[in-house]
Write a structure and sequence with these properties.
Elements (H helix, E strand, L loop, with lengths): L17 E6 L3 H17 L7 E6 L5 H10 L1 E2 L2 E2 L2 E9 L5 H20 L3 E8 L2 H7 L7 H18 L1
Parallel strand pairs: 1-2, 1-5, 5-6
Antiparallel strand pairs: 3-4
């Protein structure tokens, strides 16, 4: 009988460096996601100087900036993870499908290419109400969940 070894990452910001790329489009939603992410960073012991926030015009621009952040060094040390925050709300045109799909694809490719966890914290919703629910500052904030995912993945990658 063989024994198994399970490797998991802790959700701990101490000693980590994380970058957030956040879209300005639909900022009434994204600003709440950003608040959730920064609150989770602080709650998990993250130092303010180790968290970089970069604003981009919209979700379509997130992949190229996330890739640049993943490849960069800051303070002589690479980021441990990058988080992409945005909000794409379906409308009456196929614009949603192009923006949401290409954003997701670009972020995945950037993560695979760089080997750095790039967390998809982009809301892709049908209505403003759905976006508001997922960006709630009380509970279930997807920005905070994205930060926790980034920290867990950073710790996991450091062990592999």
């Amino acid at each position: 009988m063989s024994s198994s070894h399970i490797v998991e990452g802790e959700v701990d910001a101490r000693g980590r460096k994380v970058a957030i790329a956040a879209a300005r489009f639909n900022d009434f939603i994204v600003s709440s996601l950003l608040k959730g992410a920064t609150a989770a960073w602080t709650a998990r012991g993250g130092a303010p100087e180790d968290l970089l926030i970069v604003r981009v015009p919209g979700a379509f621009e997130l992949p190229v900036v996330a890739r640049k952040l993943a490849l960069s060094t800051r303070l002589d040390r690479r980021f441990d993870a990058v988080i992409a925050l945005g909000c794409v709300i379906r409308g009456d045109t196929p614009h949603f499908d192009y923006v949401a799909g290409e954003c997701a694809r670009g972020l995945q490719l950037a993560s695979l290419e760089t080997g750095l966890p790039i967390v998809f914290g982009v809301l892709t919703v049908e209505t403003v109400e759905q976006a508001l629910e997922r960006a709630a500052t009380t509970a279930g904030n997807k920005g905070g969940e994205s930060m926790e995912t980034a920290l867990e993945m950073a710790a996991l990658m450091a062990q592999l």
